[in-house]
Design goal:
This protein has helices at residues 2-17, 113-124, and strands spanning 29-36, 42-48, 53-61, 70-80, 86-94, 97-102. With 139 residues, it is of the alpha+beta class. The chain is flat.
Length: 139
């Protein structure tokens, strides 16, 4: 009986997949490299048989100073999307966060000039815009 239930479940899954079967092909790595040094520096890169290219290098900033060590990396990757459009991305990850640029990543419109000027004005005189907290007097 258990065998029948298992076979029935397998047939049900195969029927549910129907025309949505996706063949998974082995994609070879045609180039690969990795290097790491004793001072925290590293580099790796690879390229796959379907045109994906990846590279990254980085280091441990302030290596050996456990209170101030920080991983820093920069790299890029590229591939061709399903519509045949080349996509490339480059990035930096450091004390300023993760910063990415890419051919497919939308960029926001520039801030209006008036807003930039207002921010500059407030930033140049922060003490003029600081209010002391009001003390709360309950009833």
């Amino acid at each position: 009986m258990k065998l029948f239930i298992a076979l029935f479940a397998l047939v049900a899954v195969a029927a549910a997949v129907g025309d949505h079967y996706v063949e998974h092909k082995h994609i070879p790595i045609v180039h690969s490299e990795f290097a790491q040094s004793n001072d925290g520096k590293f580099r790796y890169a690879y390229e796959s048989g379907n045109g994906i290219v990846v590279q990254e290098e980085g280091l441990v900033k302030n290596y050996g100073n456990k209170d101030h060590e920080m991983n820093v990396a920069q790299g890029s990757y590229s591939y061709v999307d399903p519509n045949g459009v080349p996509v490339s991305v480059s990035y930096i990850a450091d004390e300023n966060g993760f910063q990415v640029q890419g051919s497919h990543i939308p960029t926001p419109p520039p801030l209006p000039k008036e807003l930039v000027e207002a921010y500059a004005k407030v930033g140049s005189h922060p003490e003029a815009h600081h209010e002391e907290p009001q003390s709360y007097k309950g009833h």
